[in-house]
Amino acid sequence: MPEELYTEKEYQSPLLKTLGDSSKLRIIDFFLDNSLFDFTKKEVIDALGMSKRTFYKINPKNPLVKLLKEYETQLSLQIAEVSL
């Protein structure tokens, strides 16, 4: 997976554009975008271009994580509608 998808500003997700580009949100965003795949900690850290100390794991069953996923989906749909 190309690292620039998660490190370059031009590829930033709607979630990060609206809520900010913090390490925690970048990790959450990564797992929301890649929820069907398993990654090692090293793969995630490398993809996000961050250090081991800033790595966290999210719980996909957490109500906040579910809400953020829905929020990101709705933002993406709105952006797609504007682009048409």
Mean pLDDT: 84
- Main sheet, how many strands, which sense, barrel? none
Measured between the Cα atoms of the first and last residue, the distance is 28 Å
- Integer tally of domains: 1
H/E order of the elements? HHHHH
Query: Which strand-content bin applies to the residues?
Result: under 5%
Low-confidence stretches: none
Note the total helix count.
5
User: By helix and strand content, what is the structural category?
Assistant: mainly alpha
Radius of gyration: 13 Å
Number of strand elements: 0
The rough form would be described as: globular
- Helix content range: 55-70%
Any key phrases for this structure?
globular
Element layout with pairings:
Blueprint: H1 4-7, H2 14-19, H3 23-33, H4 41-48, H5 63-83
Describe what this molecule looks like in 3D.
There is one protein chain. This protein has 5 helices and no strands. It has one domain. The protein is globular, with a radius of gyration of 13 Å. It is mainly alpha-helical and 84 residues long. The protein has helices at residues 4-7, 14-19, 23-33, 41-48, 63-83. The N and C termini lie far apart (28 Å).
Summarize the structure.
This protein is mainly alpha-helical and 84 residues long. Helices cover 60% and strands 0% of the residues.
